[in-house]
Amino acid sequence: MEAQRFFTIDDLLTWPGDERVELIDGEIVQRPMSRFEHGQAQTALIGQAFPLVMQRQPGGWWIVPEISVRYNEHHCPSHDLAGWRKERLPERPSGVMTLLPDWVCEILSPGHERKDTVTHFLRLQRAGVLFYWIVSPEDRALIAYALDAGGYRTVFTAEGPDETSAKVRIPPFEAIEIDLNLLFGDLE
């Protein structure tokens, strides 16, 4: 029986071709095809968080989409959105990130839900990422978790038209209101 080979960050960085891939627990995994709903949610969150991005210390954030974060030699996912407090990261970084993010947001893609709701959830919790959000554009749902005594606890949930028609303040971004209608593509 042949031992399974675990790919490393070096394998990921030299992966041939133009396909979108990431390193998940030693396996090179193809990223899902981008959909409009996914891009809309990313754009809405970035746009609404822009005042925090423009703010210098204290209270400022680096928030970027599709960012690769190296957690260890065999795990380097590309997060849909990730953010770092400028107090922890005062200078603009470059390249693959090696500093643990303060916040990660994954936007669910059909067929890849398990990766975001189980694999990333457990990995980020173990790594100590302080805040983890999961957004489901199809379900009009957002669940926000905060790390508490080594485990994630739910700090915010909204699902469906009745609960997602408000402006809310969600940790760690209590300084701004997030319009859930805009997040889910309702521009009227």
Automatic annotation (TrEMBL):
Pfam families for this protein: Uma2
Organism superkingdom: Bacteria
InterPro entries for the chain: Nuclease_put_TT1808 (IPR012296), Restrct_endonuc-II-like (IPR011335), Uma2 (IPR008538)
Stretches assigned to the Putative restriction endonuclease domain: 10-168
Listed PANTHER family: SLL0198 PROTEIN-RELATED, SLL1222 PROTEIN
Protein name: Putative restriction endonuclease domain-containing protein
Naturally occurring in which organism (per UniProt): Thiocapsa imhoffii
Lineage: Bacteria, Pseudomonadati, Pseudomonadota, Gammaproteobacteria, Chromatiales
